[in-house]
Design a protein that fits this description.
By secondary structure, the chain is mainly beta. It has a domain of 67 residues. 12% of the residues lie in helices and 44% in strands.
């Protein structure tokens, strides 16, 4: 039971920049209030596989996420197509801007 809890703790506390991390992070800025928000997507559950002809050339994965900040009620919608090694192939945002 102890090892189960250790593994569970690693899943939820592993820093995003760590090599063991399975999160992909994006920074977005709300177009209404200017709040900067860090968005984390878990590569094992938030991202869907796509097949040939379903997305842009070179895309293997797809992410669609709704983001809500703390300062206002403006919803930000992001759509990201990723390559086989989770590199960004294309991205689109409504209600905000990506911060590079």
């Amino acid at each position: 039971m102890g090892s189960f809890l250790k593994n569970l703790k690693k899943i939820f506390t592993e820093p995003a920049g760590s090599s063991k991390s399975n999160f992909i992070t994006f920074k977005v800025k709300c177009s209404k209030c200017g709040e900067e928000i860090e968005v984390k997507a878990r590569s094992t559950s938030d991202i869907s596989r796509i097949y040939e002809g379903e997305g842009p050339s070179g895309a293997a994965f797809f992410l669609r996420k709704e983001v809500l900040g703390k300062k206002c009620n403006n919803l930000i919608y992001i759509t990201v197509y990723l390559g086989s090694n989770f590199n960004v192939v294309s991205r689109d945002i409504t209600g905000g801007n990506f911060i590079d």
